[in-house]
Amino acid sequence: MMKKYVNLYTRFFIVPLMTSALLGFMSGMPVGSIFNIDFTVWLICFMIASDTFLYVLLRKFVNADLFRMNYMLLLALIAVTLIAMLVTGGSVYKLYSVLGVFMFPALPAMFAMGLMGQYAEFCALAAGLLLWNALLSYGLVYGFRPDKKIIPLALTAVIVIAAGTVFFLNSPEYKYKGHSFRYMNHFSSTDFSDYMPYSNPSKLYLLDHPASLIIEKEEDMPVLDGAEACYPMYSSFAKNVYQNIGEIEKKYIKGDYEFTNGRYVSFTNSSQGYYRLIRGDADMFFGARPSEEQKYYAESENKKIVLTPIAKEGFVFFTEADNPVESLTVQQVKDIYSGKIRNWKEVGGKDQEIVAFQRPESSGSQVMMEYFMGDTPLQTPKTYEVFDSMTGVIQMVAEYNNEKGALGYTFRYFLEGLHQEENVKMLKIDGIEASVENIRSGAYPLTAEVECAVLESNDKPNVKALLDWILSEEGQKIVEMSGYAPVN
């Protein structure tokens, strides 16, 4: 009996899985590049197709014993998954490691997907392949027609799908990853397709008359980069000042400039934008002031960053919409983020723990938070573990998740203009609302400046000309229409 099941396991589990995984791995890259198919999609489709082909090809050997073996393997996978989820606390990458042992014949696929950090996809593939094999062997043995014998298998399938969905949605990697940088070549969490210089239709603000500054030649156009929330604003600057910028940028959205989203109106966020400025790849950066690490890098390169305020913005704190707290004082915020205040009842709310989220260190809002805290130390942020194939296990800062007691911070435009969070409300600070009027007047206590950063050594004439224009009445009009408070 044991020998029979070992033969079935080898012939219908190890060999098909190893063959399809290896061939899918080897063909995935070239096929994906030729037909513009995502490698993972191709790999999954190929493995399912290969598995199916081998089962049909060897269908004369398919019997009830094979179906029972596949079904027991599926149940074993479910049990392993449940145990792994309990032991690892829902960590996708740790679960991936456990299932990698269980699904060892799929090592080539596991290796490829691990390199790309697609652990959840592999977990789904593992369960999906066993479920598919169970269904396929059932159909080949009992026929592809409704039958009461299929009810247990159908219920198992429902359990696999439901449990997998629940586990994944509650895993730390999913809950606390923020917005996962889906757009703009992974530098943005917002779909800016209506804000590109070549967008049609476009949400960019245009003056009702030709701008007083027009830059006609490509080689005379300063390269712009910036923070995520500033992109609509400085893209509008370029749309008004750079002659035919839409047609020009269309030429550069692929190839060498694909990962900056354009040649002259680029976007790599605060995390990379300042480094591009310091290296000379960008002429002007729009956003918050640089981090200490970015300042140090500039000094190490013997470069000096010159900051010019071009707009005013509010640094805001927010919580879930049904939190009864409406306002916090500046001192209360500092006490919360230093760890002195840990319960909402201490600031007039419910008897509930405050889950104070922070932002990744390179983000503009985290730089602002550190500046706001001053000499008051920030408590250690909530983190979660991820596995990076190049560096191993690393700690990631857990970004805001709309859970009970959560508190987060960002810039007002990021929250209101780009609608980055749902079911939240902005808290007043010292009883003052973060409205554009209060930010402009300075009544709101946490007013921040949006900077235009340039290198002191940059002597391109149109850099100064564009900066002067931004500070002019026309430029400040665009600042205001883009959702910010002008400085002039």
Topology:
Layout: H1 2-35, H2 39-57, H3 64-88, H4 92-102, H5 107-115, H6 119-142, H7 151-169, H8 172-175, E1 224-226, H9 231-241, H10 245-250, H11 269-279, E2 284-287, H12 292-300, E3 305-320, E4 327-328, H13 330-338, E5 355-356, H14 364-373, E6 383-388, E7 392-397, E8 406-411, H15 412-416, E9 424-426, E10 428-429, H16 436-441, E11 447-455, H17 461-470, H18 473-481, E12 485-486
Parallel strand pairs: 1-2, 4-10, 5-8
Antiparallel strand pairs: 2-11, 3-8, 3-9, 3-11, 3-12, 6-7
Helix pairs in contact: 1-2, 1-3, 1-5, 2-6, 3-4, 3-6, 3-7, 4-6, 6-7
Q: How would you briefly describe this protein structure?
A:
The chain is α/β, with parallel strands linked by helices and 488 residues long.
What do these coordinates show?
With 488 residues, this protein is an alpha/beta fold. It folds into 3 domains: 2-175, no CATH class; 184-311 and 450-486, Periplasmic binding protein-like II (D-Maltodextrin-Binding Protein, domain 2), CATH 3.40.190.10; 313-448, 3-Layer(aba) Sandwich (D-Maltodextrin-Binding Protein, domain 2), CATH 3.40.190.10. Helix content is 47%, strand content 12%. It has helices at 2-35, 39-57, 64-88, 92-102, 107-115, 119-142, 151-169, 172-175, 231-241, 245-250, 269-279, 292-300, 330-338, 364-373, 412-416, 436-441, 461-470, 473-481; strands at residues 224-226, 284-287, 305-320, 327-328, 355-356, 383-388, 392-397, 406-411, 424-426, 428-429, 447-455, 485-486. The strands form 3 sheets. Strands 1, 2, 3, 5, 8, 9, 11 and 12 form an 8-stranded mixed sheet that branches. It has a two-stranded parallel ribbon with strand order 4-10. Strand 6 (383-388) and strand 7 form a beta hairpin. Helix 1 (2-35) packs across helix 3 and helix 3 runs parallel beside helix 7. The termini are far apart. The model has no long low-confidence stretch (mean pLDDT 86).
